[in-house]
Amino acid sequence: MMVVPFQPEHLTAMVLQPDQAYLRAWxxxxxxxxxxxHEAFSALDEDGDVIGSAGVIKLWEGRGMAWAYLSVNARNxxxxxxxxxxxxxxxxxxxxxxxxxxxxxxxxxxxxNMLGFKLECGRMQAYRPDGGACSLYARVRK
Length: 142
Known about the structure:
The protein is of the alpha+beta class. It has a single domain (2-140), classed as Aminopeptidase (3-Layer(aba) Sandwich). It contains 4 helices and 7 strands; from the N terminus they run βααβββαβαββ. It has a 7-stranded mixed sheet. β4, α3 (78-91) and β5 form a beta-alpha-beta unit.
């Protein structure tokens, strides 16, 4: 696996894992370009295919929102992807980084904990673009 700077085409070309497939309708070239203005990276497999992209969108001074999209082929690469995200978060200068996880996605909750995030809100109704509920996690630097 190779970690590279994020490019907008990484999001639009990726075949998302089934639990994130509902997001495809909201990943437009314009959204991908806007995300590229923030700190982000992508992971490529041995063939150069994008297997994941992640980053943090700065909301205001000291606070940001983490995001990650994983491809259907990310499963065999989760350990190196997790290590890359941890390294990214360790050098992130923001005091508070939040992330949301679909309430019905147990692997996402497990990953949030592995990345050092703590659950702050178990259920935010109608949070997702399609009306689904999410949980809110945060990683706060003292």
